[in-house]
Amino acid sequence: MNKFWSSAVARTEPYVPGEQIEQEGLLKLNTNENPYPPSPKVVAAIQDELGRKLHRYPTPSVDRLREKIAEFNQLNPEQVFVGNGSDEVLAFSFMAFFEPGKTIRFPAVSYSFYPVYAKLFDIPYEEVPLNRDFSLAWDKFFQSDGGVIFPNPNAPTSLYLDNKHIIDIIENNPNNVVIVDEAYIDFAKESAVHLVNNYENLLVVQTMSKSRSLAGLRIGFAVGNPNLIEALNRVKNSFNSYTLDRLAIAGAEAAIMDVDYFHETTKKVIHTREWVTAELKKVGFTVLPSDTNFLFIRHYKINANEIYQMLKEQNILTRHFNRPSIESYLRITIGTDEDMTTLIDTLTLCLCQKN
Ligand code: PMP
User: Fold this and answer.
1) Number of domains forming the structure of the chain
2) Nearest 5°: CA angle at 27, between 26 and 33?
3) Within 6 Å (CB) of ligand 1, which residues are found?
4) Does the ipTM surpass 0.90?
């Protein structure tokens, strides 16, 4: 605390991201990135853009990218907002739709950025505990005072909530915005995106960091009723109208258009996820049924923090959360088949040494 700090900064505890270590030989399975590089068409588009107009500002309304995202989702461009990673889109959404004095709800546990934004913008919040099996207690989100936000599938639990329950939440919050954070939806069954045509209070937020392999480029987007999108534009244009740079825009356009590459890599990740789940169960892990590109696992005998440390000593980075309700679990990102073979071999060896 410093006398020069605003009260917002003083009360905020910043988000602590997963370790971002760039080290030769490190198997990085801790922040849910895609193990596959982006489509070659993305790289070509960025290279092409490099030779163009970097001395000129990008278009603030990012029209072409919004058109392409709209086309992919069978929506209109006025229903699409793009931002610098979905973290930025979420921050703008908190500012646009939630406010001091009205309590919002989100699950405990879920994405740890939500309480950070709430504190920074002075928005009171209520954390709704998950059910004992970690599923979302969807009926506890009805009639909120100030709005609702939750990830689907949830993070870090990896569990998916069916659209019929999402509709229940939306219909039972007629005067508030319901934000569904679909960071991992492309690894799951069905998105809620098309519901924005029916519900004016639904905002769906997605990212290109996971299924499009573009974590390094920082592209996120939201879809919703044009009234909601206009509110997001008001917030954005009051901070930084040019929030996406020209290279990111060019790369994102190419990524959204290369549908084949997207389907191919997503399918590979899902296939790997399924066999890794089976293998982990064989060596004594409980694995929650994942609809994401990561697994949330617990060993029947060995402490999760101990497994995290053992793997780190072997140059494999996973994520362990020091939160009481989930401290016995470890979150592991799905890598390539080769990465996951290394993981399973290492785990098997470590577990043998412990016995
Ligand atoms: N929402 C959830 C649930 C996430 O796990 C993440 C990634 N950590 C994000 C949003 C943010 O993703 P990005 O800013 O890379 O788009």
Assistant:
1) 2
2) 120
3) 85-87, 111, 151, 155, 181, 183, 207, 209, 215, 220
4) yes
